[in-house]
Specification:
By secondary structure, this protein is α+β, with helices and mostly antiparallel strands. 31% of the residues lie in helices and 37% in strands. It has an 8-stranded antiparallel barrel with strand order 1-3-2-6-7-5-8-4, surrounded by 4 helices. Strand 6 and strand 7 (179-186) form a beta hairpin. The longest helix is centred in the middle third of the chain and has 16 residues, at 146-161. The chain is globular.
């Protein structure tokens, strides 16, 4: 049994898959932010598309979307998911939903000029040393480095595919090809650190990132996974 985090989640990422209603789901990249922006207790949110194939692709996955949210308290998220009419509609149209509750433990860099998680960092304890860990990376690419970046994506995908201790990974983003992010889940902090600092392929990518100045802005955040649920909201 995994150890329980000492602090409840205030960050959630909801993945939705659509078998039908795909055009509706695509439109929510624009309409969703308008619908939820004034929700009580909601500090930060992003509606994200995803990459096709294994998640790292120039081709979008028009059947899978993610919604990342940061809340004043877990209760605010619970009230939102239970009562907000827009969220109920989103769930009803989806064929599958996965909700991952996260506790921020480290974050540096910027997302649209700010770090939304920096003021919510919780210290890890020895009881959490082997808890599942989520990693979120996000970057805005420099226009004159797009070709170089995307040429390296297949190698980056193979690198994480073969990494020891990775449980899940998916490429996500606000705008195709320019604003990119990845979400990955790992067995524990040790697995993350081994990949980040000892994996030769990952080290090569980090070196190229700095040498070729791929990013105009970037953010790197780690979280403890407090909850992870999967279900089918409805039968279409």
């Amino acid at each position: 049994m995994k150890p329980e985090p000492t602090t409840p989640s205030r960050v959630y990422i909801d993945f939705f898959q659509f078998e039908s209603h795909r055009y509706w789901a695509f439109k929510q990249m624009l309409l969703g932010p308008i619908a939820i922006q004034k929700t009580s207790g909601l500090q930060f949110f992003k509606f994200l598309g995803t990459g096709g194939g294994n998640g790292f692709s120039l081709r979008p996955d028009f059947g899978t979307y993610a919604v990342l949210t940061l809340w004043d308290s877990p209760r605010d998220y619970q009230n939102f998911t239970a009562n907000h009419p827009y969220w109920k509609t989103y769930q009803k149209k989806a064929a599958y939903q996965r909700t991952i509750g996260l506790v921020p433990v480290h974050s540096h860099g910027k997302w649209n000029g700010n770090n939304p998680f920096a003021n919510h960092i919780k210290k890890t304890t020895s009881t959490l040393a082997y808890a599942p860990v989520a990693v979120l990376t996000r970057a805005t690419l420099n226009w004159n480095r797009l070709l170089s970046f995307w040429r390296s994506v297949p190698h980056a995908a193979r690198t994480i595919e073969t990494a020891k201790g990775v449980l899940f990974y998916k490429g996500v983003g606000e705008w195709p090809w320019v604003q990119q992010a990845t979400v990955s889940i790992w067995e524990n902090f040790e697995a993350v650190n081994t990949f980040a600092y000892k994996h030769r392929g990952h080290a090569e990518i980090v070196r190229k990132t700095k040498a070729q100045k791929w990013y105009k802005e970037d953010l790197f955040s780690r979280f403890v996974v407090a909850s992870d649920t999967q279900f089918q909201p409805t039968i279409q």
